[in-house]
Amino acid sequence: MSASGGAKAIVAALAANLAIAVAKFVAFLFSGSSSMLAEAVHSLADSGNQFLLLIGGKKAQREATPQHPFGYGRERYIYAFLVSIVLFSVGGMFAVYEGYEKISHPHDLEHWYWPVGVLVFAIIAEGFSFRTAIKESNALRGKLTWGQFIKRAKAPELPVVLLEDFGALIGLVLALFGVGLTLATGDAVWDGIGTLCIGILLIAIAIVLALETKSLLLGEAAGAEEVAKIEQAVVDGETVTGLIHMRTLHLGPEELLVAAKVAVQHDDTAAEVARAINEAESRIRAAVPIARVIYLEPDIYSESEAAKGSDREARPGGPTQMPEH
Q: How far, in Å, CA of 110 to CA of 55, rounded?
């Protein structure tokens, strides 16, 4: 799966959310609808989130330095995690508070046609943004379901925009539902209930984003397809006769670290081994272009050692060998 940042989807979402936020604030001022205020803050938070994604993408392009020798690719994960925090605090918690206040102290809607008109306009604009995000994602997700795509995508931007737009559309429907019932029943409590539902929805989406981005920040391995390609590419059957073990790690959405111990013949010369390692690295990069940092360690394959299974002590997080007393 490609790790495209989906810049087109981000810009489309930013343009839609800025226009919608202005319209919703105007509608709130004329109508006093708490649903409209919650939705206006939601759109403003979403606009800030798109700015964060663009900033993260820009910062991730910086060249590696002695202090950060593997570059800044993970900046995109950090800014995506900040998006989940903004969505939770500014969007979700504010809407929950506003909904509670509206239910506790309801007041009549004024100029009802303002919120209804703005909500219809917002649904159309968000639909355009959501359509763009779906189109961009379809080019990458292949046969994966939408849930699998959001879970497995190494580039955080498209999943973030998809979930934000989906949440925005559902939130707009809830706001329209609250305003409509308020007008139909004359009871402004329904407007507060709609606002409360919007807040709960945004909090749920923020939690999903936080969990997925946390996994990326901790460091995820290459996907099964990429791992299979690397395993196939590393062995030439002559000098490199097998793969003993391998670890992969995403340094960023578009940069993969590959570390492996490979089996060579016991009577190969150092020059032959060095040439075989270089050729194996070239084959890996040809098979998986994002494999930019590769470390291959030659070793003599031993059936007795292989029979012992994986060496847990060599794995990150393995138990520490206690000294004998």
A: 40
Q: What is the pLDDT of residues 267-293, one digit of tens each?
A: 888 898 999 999 999 999 999 999 989
Q: How many CA atoms lie within 13 A of 234 on its CB side?
A: 25
- Comparing CA positions, the residue from 44, 120, 115, 116 lying closest to residue 86 is 44
Q: What's the farthest any 2 CA atoms get from each other in the chain?
A: 89
Residue 113: both structure tokens together = 């046609």
Of 101, 98, 111, which Cα lies nearest the Cα of 39?
98
Q: Bigger pLDDT: 228 or 44?
A: 228
Distance of CA 130 to the CA centre of its chain: 16
DSSP string, 154-203: SSSHHHHHHHHHHHHHHHHHHHHHHHHHHHHHS-THHHHHHHHHHHHHHH
DSSP-derived 3-state class of residue 316 = coil
Give bridge partners of residue 253 from the DSSP assignment.
Answer: none
pTM over 0.85: no
Whether 154 and 226 have beta carbons less than 8 Å apart is answered as: no
Q: What is the pLDDT of residues 185-244, one digit of tens each?
A: 888 889 889 889 988 988 998 898 888 888 888 888 998 889 999 999 998 878 888 888
3-state secondary structure of 248: strand
Q: Which residue has the tokens 């605090």?
A: 89
Q: Which segments of 60-145 does DSSP mark as H helices, in order?
A: 75-86, 94-104, 113-141
Angle at 295 between CA 289 and CA 299, to 5 degrees: 130
Q: Which of 291, 178, 321 is nearest to 228 (CA)?
A: 291
Q: Where are any strands of DSSP class E within 210-287?
A: 240-252, 255-264
Please say whether the beta carbons of 288 and 256 come within 8 A: yes
